[in-house]
Amino acid sequence: MPVKAITPDYQGEKLDKFENFHGNQVVYVGWDHHLMFCAPFAYPVSPEMPFQTLLTEVMPEAFGLHPEFQDIDWESVQWKLDEADFIPQPQVALAAQGIGHKSVLRFHTPGLNGYQGAGV
Amino acid sequence: MAAKKLNIKDKYRLLTRDLDWEYSYQDRQAAFPYEEFEGIKITDWSKWEDPFRLTMDAYWKYQAEKEKKLYAIFDAFAQNNGHLNVSDPRYVNAIKLFLSAVTPLEYQAYQGFAHTGRQFGGVGARIACQMQSIDELRHVQTQIHAMSHFNKFFDGFQDFSHMHDRVWYLSVPKSFFNDARAAGPFEFMIAIGFSFEYVLTNLLFVPFMSGAAHNGDMATVTFGFSAQSDEARHMTLGLEIIKFLLEQHEDNVPIVQKWIDKWFWRGARLLSVVSMMMDYMLPNKVMSWKEAWEVYFEEAGGALFKDLARYGIRMPKYADVIEKEKEHLSHQTWWTFYTHGQATGFHTWIPSDEELDWLSEKYPETFDKYYRPRWELAKEMEAKGERFYTKALPQLCTICQVPMLFTDMDNPTQTVYRSSQYEGERYHFCSDGCKDIFDDEPEKYVQSWLPVHQIFQGNCGGPDLTGVLGEFYKMNLGADNLDMKGSPDEQRWNQWKGKA
């Protein structure tokens, strides 16, 4: 439904378009049922970055503070990309496997239920 | 013989309604260009009931009297070193948050009411908006003066208006008012005059002023008393505008309902910071957030909406979700600030053991199950000398701009993810409430200034976070931010009180 504005055909400037991020795209990553981190993280990363690099070089700095992070069996992790089930290809670039600008990646770690099993 | 003095009714007529005139050589529509584009139909402005029969001369007289008393108390507070009488230095952080998050909104309200006070075709409505506009300006000034005493003794007060325009969490209140002010005058009145001032304001002012009273802050309490009679007028105006719009034309009903839904939701999200202030930041607690919500929204708001039902207005959409969130909101919000304590302009801390027990008692269904474990983890990390500060930036909701911290009320350890596509681009939201607002007017919200994205785009200084916080936000790093424990605020307090 279009905005009702006093200016005809009003259209605000899109502040978050890909072109504004100097070659990076924003990718959000959330760990299901692990609320030690209050919200999913936002990462500015190259669309050309292989998935493996995101996993081993970008994510550990922040996620690594969680006491269960080192126990994750990455083979059994269940991923969702933009709400659909997803199987990442480690050596393929993010954009090439559909992880685009402002995509959401969620991962679920069966058997790991957060600090004290409380979803923390 | 004519009376020497005009009676109140005549005086009122002459000083308000009589100030309007018929347009003989100009087009009236051109004089009030904002009146029609929102789709609201006004058939007869003369039906407007003036919510308070106050004339400008009486207004100045009353306000001047209040001002005299108020400033006498501020002086006494300063001369008697009133800051030494607060319950605990942690309390002062609630005031820092108020000054940077809420006080600048009073200024935005002043600007917003000045605009609507010009744009309404009806003179009665214009005068009422004008008076509220002046009130709001007075509230900015008196709040700044009430809190200025603390600026001499505590960190974090120095650049509140600069911070309001830039700091990540302050984009939440700032964008709320920017959204209202960028709307037409009728939506502004439903957003601020009705939803905020009438439905939600008690949840902000009552806990805040009672919080000040319970924690020995006489300057802020006195400001509260001085603003109270104004707030009562603002509530009356909020109620009048909604009844007037609903009575003017039946076509207005769905438009007004849509605005109520939107602004109730935006208001509830805005109040997240108040919830954590009540439950976590006040050393002497007034009541829990949950109790406040029950008294001031469920009971009072419930009665109001029952009253409005005869116009065809129903409870705001998603009020049921917010009712469930009252069990979770303050815990999730304070945890967000605690874990981002390196990037906040005030101090954060782990609740004391007594406070944790108080929270268990007030939130028997949720606190021990979901939230106490977080604090146990935080304590464990602190004991190891590794105070927990999150190391990456959070995803934000495009509408409310709050980090995506809200969880599914039927599955409270799972973050809610909602998104929409618009012209090939994805937009993300914390809730159905925020998603609906976007989907209704995407052209407006594609321009949301989301602090995390702005940092990534290089628009907030940098290149690292220290540059953003220190240079762009103007926080004094190591003094304004980080944990209460070991802060200069705490050290000074201990010196004043002769503690180690």
Automatic annotation (TrEMBL), chain A:
Gene3D superfamilies: Phenol hydroxylase (3.10.20.560). Pfam families: Phenol_monoox. InterPro entries: Phenol_hydroxylase, Phenol_hydroxylase_sf. This is Phenol hydroxylase subunit P4.
Automatic annotation (TrEMBL), chain B:
Residues 410-449 form the YHS domain. Pfam families: Phenol_Hydrox, YHS. Keywords: Monooxygenase, Oxidoreductase. The keyword Cell membrane does not apply. GO terms for molecular function: monooxygenase activity. SUPFAM superfamilies: Ferritin-like. This is Aromatic/alkene/methane monooxygenase hydroxylase/oxygenase subunit alpha. It comes from Photobacterium atrarenae.
